[in-house]
Structure formats: C-alpha cells, structure tokens
Amino acid sequence: MAFKEIPPAILTGLKNEDTASFGTQKHIDSLADAALRHSADSFEKMFSPILKLLDRADSLEQLRDLMESEKEAAALFSAMPDADLEVLLQKAMVYANLAGRLIENED
Known about the structure:
This protein is an all-alpha fold. The protein has helices spanning 8-15, 25-56, 60-68, 70-78, 83-106. The longest helix has 32 residues, at 25-56.
C-alpha cells in the first residue's frame, strides 16, 4: 500500500495523538499493534510457502533436512513475496525518523 493510500482515519489518529506520548513504550506498542493489523495479509502471503513446507514435512527431522538443502532453501525464499513487507518497513523507517526528529526538536 502506497503511503498516500493509507486511510485518512489512520493518519488523523497519528496526527491528533498527544505528542507528549511520542517515544514512550505505550506509543511504540500502539504503533507495533497498528503495523500488525495493517500488515496481516502481507505476512500471511509471505509466510504461506513456509506453512506449505511444514505441511509437507512428516517429522522435525525431515523438516530439518529440507531446510538444510540449499536448493530447498533457495526455492523457499524465492517463493516468499516480500514487496509488501518492504513497503511496510520503508514506512516504519520514515515514521521512526520523523518521530525521532519531533522528539529531538521538543527538547
């Protein structure tokens, strides 16, 4: 989801938040909770190849053997779509940078 596609209610919630809470554990926890809610579908898509691999393995030993195979590991990682996660991480880094600057300028 592009930054401009974020629902206005989310942006309004961030904008109207009490700036005194920036940088607190409560604020960080609320951001992490919001990120999890908004990225659940992306994580489900990304980790679906791992779940399929778990379904294929009949035992932990077989799972270990599959993961020790460079060919299997390469196939697994190439099957994991990470574009949505990359966008989420970019947004998180921009927000963290802006929040840090806001806190620094308040002092």
